[in-house]
Amino acid sequence: MRGIRSSLSFVPFYICALLGLLASVSRMPLLLFASLVLLGAAFSLDLRKRYPLFSKYLSFFGLLAVILVMFLSPRTESFPLLMDLLLFIKFFSPKKRVDYYEILLLSFLLFFTGVLSCEGGISSCLVLPFFYFLTLCLFLLSMPSFPAMNVGRTIALRRHLRLFGLYLLFFALLFLILPRPALRLFPFSLEQKEASAYGDVLEVGRSGADFNSREPVFRAKVEGDFLRDSLYWRGVVFSFYRHGNWVALPSQKEAGQGFRWDKEEGHIRGRVFSENYPSEYLYLLDVPVAVFLSSGSLRAGRGRTVLLDGNPGKRFSYRFESDRSPIEEDDPALYLGLEPELRESLRPLALAVVGTTSDPESAAQKVCAYLLENYTYDAEVGAGEGDVILNFLFRSRRGYCEHFATAFVLLLRSIGIPSRAVGGFRGGEYNPYGKFYTVRERDAHLWAEVYVPGRGWLRFDPTPTTRAPIGKGIPFVLKSLMEMLNFEWNRYFLSYSMEEQIGLLVAALIRWKYILLFLLILAFASSYAIRYGRKKKGKADSNRMGRFSRMYLEVLEVLEGRGFVRKAGETPLQFARRLRDETFFRFTGVYYRVRYSPSPDRKSLEEFQALYLKLKKGR
């Protein structure tokens, strides 16, 4: 009895492991690539019955894997990475029945954790084939003779592999046709902690923003006329301030899946891909002109803000058009409100800073310069005691963007200048390889907009600039490459919308229409040539077999003239044995080869011709 390797019955176990890896590490392209390489190497070694790891080394490698994973990998990646390592330890070592059970268990754990944490449609497409091959593997393990059996003859393994291939082709077609909505297969998840950002209500000094967090919120590809060193992603516009809290006005109306404010196209165009989206507000660069969501619907808020209507999931994308020209609409009277006690406390300072200036823009510039020159940025400062802004302006003189922007707005409101606070993100880490910006939780920011008659709402940022250090060296390059791979994977596989797929298909058809026409003509010509060639070959084969039969009958006529007649129902081989002539016996054997072989070799043809001539001449 041949072993399991000789019959390739271990293939279903490799397929289960492959599906588990695809589900669990599909969001980590480098790890996925390394896993596929290792899986291929293990498969090759299994075919040749070579195992570099033996039982005495398994404990050492297992312990080393646990230590490396627990101390060097991020929390959200530690479990799948650990399962991945243990799985390959099993594959690279000799296997008994219990080892195959352990391989199935590890594959199941990988697949299960991948399904829980993946929000794209890939994991759901893998559910059916995974459980199909899991069942097949359990069926194999239930056989008493496993693994010392020729399973290749016990079950039609090739039939299962063909069925799996057809299944993959079918779902590959669905993958290209259907969009990948950001839906969870299960209502719970093993995702990383959610990033924080500004919502409808902001408690100044107590927002909970983590300015040290590198948690990505979204990534964006931007093109057009924009200031690369001054990126402001507008989210929420705050109107009312009371007792240390900013409150945004309710949204105005439904906007469907897209919204456009201006008829003319914006000079800035981009697409935002969510990563760990913390808010219902869409973040748009500078002054938005239009926005279109990949899936779901939107609501338009005041100050050209846009809100998600419902929950599209954490992984979605939206296109936007923007401009740098100021916003002109929105009633400035809505942005003058201030508590009387606070107005009385702030007005003397505002008048002292502004002086006799009556122009709103000049007054705003003076207040902005005053805050930048006389106050210190400190991200660790809290709200303090009493009123948070009075404490900031007159006592601590330390704070971060929430303190600076709020103080700026309230000082201007105290002297009758319409102004408002705007929450969103500032900046972003540029990836030179993928040409996109990564905006992280630490980039959360609050700034101000001031209404200037005849010009609209102008942006002012009174917070001292603080920049994260720019990465350098090999670690930065490797990190940028990994983020680029993750971004492209999420963009084209997990967050690809129907609109993008149709657009790509149409663009490809237009761009390659002549090549497609040529390929169609070539395919038609090739099909015709193949059919003609088969027909001609069939006719040639028929003529060839007929020629050999005629030559054999001619030899029989010669033998009949000598008194040797083949009986009715007697096969050529039976007749040759009865005749007991060595030359004719050889001729009959060669006749069988050339007559029934699909492509007889040249030596057999030459031998058949020589024996034919010899028998015809009666030698």
TrEMBL record:
Write out the coiled-coil annotation as residue ranges. Answer: none
Record keywords, A-Z: Membrane, Transmembrane, Transmembrane helix
Query: What SUPFAM superfamilies does its record include?
Result: Cysteine proteinases
Please name the Gene3D superfamilies in this protein's record. Answer: 3.10.620.30
Give the range the annotation lists for the signal sequence.
none
Question: TM spans, by residue?
Answer: 7-24, 54-72, 100-117, 129-149, 161-178, 512-530
Q: Name one Pfam family in it.
A: TgpA_N
The Transglutaminase-like domain extends over 393-464
- Tell me where on the tree of life, at the top rank, the source sits: Bacteria
Annotated protein name in UniProt: DUF3488 domain-containing protein
Write down the species. candidate division WOR-3 bacterium
